[in-house]
Amino acid sequence: MHTPEAIQEMNTQIELHAGFVTRIRTELTKVIVGQQYMVDRLLIGLLSNGHVLLEGVPGLAKTLTIKSLAQAVNGRFSRIQFTPDLLPADVIGTMIYNQSKNEFLVRKGPVFANFILADEINRAPAKVQSALLEAMQEKQVTIGETTYPLPEPFLVLATQNPLEQEGTYALPEAQVDRFMLKVVVGYPDKQEEQLIIRQQVTGLNMPQVQPVVDISEIMTARNLVRQVYMDEKIENYILDLVFATRYPDQYGLAKLKQMIGYGGSPRASINLALAAKAVAFLHKRSYVIPDDVKAIAKDVLRHRIGLTYEAEAENNTTESIIDALLATIQVP
Q1: In this model, does residue 240 exceed pLDDT 90?
Q2: Confidence (pLDDT) at 5
Q3: Buried b (16+ CB within 10 A) or exposed e, 268-301
Q4: For 25-48, what is the mean pLDDT?
Q5: Sign of the dihedral defined by the CA atoms of residues 209, 55, 110, 278, in that order
Q6: Residue 166 has pLDDT above 70, yes or no
Q7: Residue 198 has pLDDT above 80, yes or no
Q8: Of residues 131, 94, 93, 89, the one with CA closest to residue 109
Q9: Where are the alpha helices (DSSP H) in 49-146?
Q10: What three-state secondary structure class fits 92?
């Protein structure tokens, strides 16, 4: 029962436990100039227990941001550089025969960490991607006949380069759908890039990111995020947005019917609701407003809408479709 008193009490709890967000942001600004949008999306993934796919050209500090976040949270960090010759065992681990003991021993792979940076994930073949898929979805890994749970929190932060498609393996829809958010990382503005030049060219006294948050604080915050109040009107707004990707003609968007090959699955609705709650938490609010849903809609939906050949031929994008949805669906 969400009475005004209960919401006020929840506000107090969030005020008490959301302080670490400011500490993380402050710590990251030591080494990262700008990119506030990307940092916030990584925090939303962390708070919502959802994996994040970052897409952008090289040199936009994607890898540095993920690594810095792991350092600030005091969690175990693994970087896996995905290449065409990578094997599943290189990711999850394998059985190794020990001659002296005459037995097989398990050697766990780099996936056994709190933060996994899957760098250029689209460079690895399907077998490697499927090995990571089990880890992402089930939060466990099977080596030999034994299944091992992965540590909590477990977050896969993957990057992919949209430019060089030679020698890459496009992620199948089922795997892309496992990512809660797909974040398109843009260029810094002129002032930010000037600061980057000064910071990198001098190279003097480059600051180091220090741990400012414990894992226990993250787990407490995750529980609070799930308790953030969402009114039924907001739930219906989320459902309308997702259902409009499947049946656009029922929402006065008949022109989109020829553009959309397939719409968002129930996972889109779940992730949109969870991410909106995390946005509210970042604003230290105990309830979700429509603007929270709008703020995160593109990141949740852009990789869950399939374009038809006609739409691609006319240079339509999933972003333009989501813009049309947000402009048309009635806001509560």
Answers
A1: yes
A2: 74
A3: bbbbbbbbbbbbbbbeebbbbbbebbbbbbbbbb
A4: 85
A5: positive
A6: no
A7: no
A8: 93
A9: 62-73, 88-92, 126-138
A10: helix
Structure tokens at 303: 């990789």
**Domain 18-197 class in CATH:** alpha beta
Confidence label for 129 from pLDDT (cuts 50, 70 and 90): confident
Q: For residue 182, what is the enclosing H or E element?
A: strand 179-184
pLDDT at 204 over 60: no
Query: What is the CA angle 97-101-105, rounded to 5?
Result: 40
Provide CB contacts within 8 A for 167, sequence distance 6+: 84, 123
Adjacent-strand bridge partners of 71: none
Alpha-carbon distance of 52 to 50, in angstroms, equals 7
Label residue 239 exposed, middle or buried (CB < 10 Å: 0-12, 13-18, 19+): middle
For the domain spanning 228-328, the CATH number is: 1.10.8.80
Rg of the chain over Cα atoms, rounded to whole angstroms, equals 21
Concatenate the DSSP letters of all residues of 259-281 into one string: TEEE---HHHHHHHHHHHHHHHH
Distance in angstroms (rounded) separating the CA atoms of residues 245 and 142? 36
Which tokens sit at 289?
């407003």
Give 180's pLDDT tier (boundaries 50, 70, 90): very high
Tokens describing residue 42: 């990584």
Q: Is the dihedral angle over the CA atoms 255, 257, 258, 264 positive or is it negative? A: positive
Entry pTM: 0.87
228's tokens: 């953030």
Residue ranges of domains in the chain: 18-197, 228-328
- The β-bridge relationship of strands 93-98 and 260-262 is unpaired
* 169 pLDDT more than 80: no
Cα dihedral: 304, 306, 312, 315 (round 10): -30
Q: Which of 69, 73, 15, 8 is nearest to 42 (CA)?
A: 69
